[in-house]
Amino acid sequence: MHNVKQKYLINPFFMITILLFINLFMHLALPNLFGDIRLEVFLIVILYLFSFGIGFYIFGSLFLNTIKKNIKYHTTNFTSLELIPHWKYIYYIFIIFLSYSLFNEVLLNGISTIAEYRININNHFNNKGNLYWIMRGFSLVFFIALIQFIYVNSFKMRFYWAFISLASAIIGSGRNYLLFFFLTLLIIVLQGKNVLIKLVIMVISFFLVSIFFIFAFNKADPDSGIILGTLLSLSHYFSVPLYGLSVIMDNNNLGTFMLLSDGILNILNISHIPTPPMEYTPYPFITNVYTLFWPMYYDLGYLGIIVFGLFYGFIHMILYSMAKNGGVAFYLYCISLYPLFMSIFHDTYLSSIGLWVVASVALIFFRKKENINV
């Protein structure tokens, strides 16, 4: 048996625990800056982390141990993926086609500013207009580039695929793709040498890209400077949803089953009562996203917090364990960090089914590069 060098990964339970406890501390220590939250929110967070930990360390570990003991199998360690050669040309033609289509849509809609561009994209997403399908196309471009970024060994080629990833993310005007990229970049950085220096460069790069997004799309306080405005905007996005959860917990009259309506029922085109546009919380702590916990709590109460905590902990343990030897699981683990991080904003596990479909379809363009057989 060959010794297989495993990847160094961030423990998902550790990550979600740190994120939520920092968030709680910000509200507890600085309620005038980030908003005061009710005691019940603290209870929900602790209950979810406890359930996630059980699903992660107990159920996930038991499942993996059972497979190893009871199933005889021949394992092959696929350490990397590579883009299928003939798909590469189709991929570039696809990018040219999307760029041409986007240019025509921009001219047709008379878009003259970046802020107008984002507004038009949001409108087309709501109405499934032409820009919606073009953006879905760039989403596929992004994930194919992200997979290439993960598995190429050359620094030059990794930089090239990073550029395509970031360019397609900016075209899509969504910071969710930037989060996908930088969380993946974090894992890639941890595999190499000079980790501390690379982490500093990564943080600076993320901050610079955030400055562009925040000011290009008018998300910053106009009276604040560039640095302070960006810091305030990032801290606001990070912390306020938990305050929003505290405010909206009294609203029990949406008339729909939130866990399914935003994602699964939409994808399956099943007739249902859609979730109405969520209300914004009062000034100065303004938000209309209420963390991962709101749909769980609204639909199922504390039982929802427990059940989904167990389930998500279980899933993350499977991906975390399988990803240590690389292969397709390494990519799946990298993109799984996105919904984990987004837990502090809103649910992206069930409400972003279309996103997961595109991320999975991107794998069709690749084949497994077999380096080590065990």
Describe the structure.
This protein has 374 residues and is mainly α. It has one domain (12-373). Helices cover 68% and strands 3% of the residues. The chain has a two-stranded antiparallel sheet. The chain has a two-stranded antiparallel sheet with strand order 2-3. Helix 3 (39-70) packs across helix 14 (302-323) and helix 7 runs antiparallel to helix 8 (175-191). The longest helix has 32 residues, at 39-70. The model has no long low-confidence stretch (mean pLDDT 84).
Write the layout of secondary structure elements.
Blueprint: H1 12-29, H2 31-34, H3 39-70, E1 76-77, E2 80-83, H4 85-108, H5 114-127, H6 130-151, H7 155-171, H8 175-191, H9 195-216, H10 226-248, H11 258-261, H12 264-267, H13 293-300, H14 302-323, H15 328-341, H16 353-361, E3 366-369, E4 372-373
Strand residue content: under 5%
The total count of helices amounts to 16
Order of helices and strands: HHHEEHHHHHHHHHHHHHEE
User: Strand order across the biggest sheet?
Assistant: 1-4
- Label the structural class: mainly alpha
Give the C-alpha Rg: 21 Å
Query: Which overall shape is indicated by the principal axes computed on the Cα atoms?
Result: globular
Number of strands: 4
- Let me know the average pLDDT: 84
Unreliable segments of 5+ consecutive residues: none
Helical content class: 55-70%
Number of structural units classed as domains: 1
> In this structure, how is the largest beta sheet organized?
2 strands, antiparallel
Cα distance, first to last residue?
A: 6 Å
